[in-house]
Amino acid sequence: MSTPHMTKREQQVIELLCQGLANKAIARRLGISDSTVKVHLHHMYLKFGVDNRLALAMKKGRELPPGRQGLIGETRSVHREDLNAASTAINGAHHKAGESSIAQINGEVE
User: Fold this and answer.
1) Does one domain contain both 32 and 56?
2) For 33-82, how does the pLDDT look when each residue is reduced to its tens digit (9 = 90+)?
3) Global confidence as pTM
4) Residues 6+ apart with CB under 8 A from 14
């Protein structure tokens, strides 16, 4: 499968995306608006057949030089750690809310 054609600006955007920069940081670096970054990303999503920035970075990561490919793996593990921490926090909050509701039902809370 051949690599989709990307404009010079799209190449710049995806390079910064693969470095882990957010849209606003990419916009500042390139001297363009946040909205323009989003337009470039949307075009690349269509070209690569993906629907989010992580999938785009992973697709592009397969084509990055070997020294750069680790970045995508590191990003993936950081996201996984963040998701696990968020999940734990949410589950803890739900558990506490459930205990409170049960106490109210049982008349243990004033």
Assistant:
1) yes
2) 999 999 999 999 999 999 988 888 888 765 444 444 444 444 444 455 55
3) 0.55
4) 6, 44, 56, 57, 60
Structural domain harbouring 5: 1-64
pLDDT at 30 over 70: yes
Cβ pair 52, 38 in contact under 8 A: no
The answer to whether 18 touches 55, Cβ cutoff 8 Å, is no
Let me know whether 57 and 90 are in one domain. no
Q: Which of 17-21, 37-41, 92-96 has the lowest mean pLDDT?
A: 92-96
Whether residues 44 and 72 share a domain: the answer is: no
Residues sharing a CB contact under 8 Å with residue 68, sequence separation 6 or more, in sequence order: 18, 61
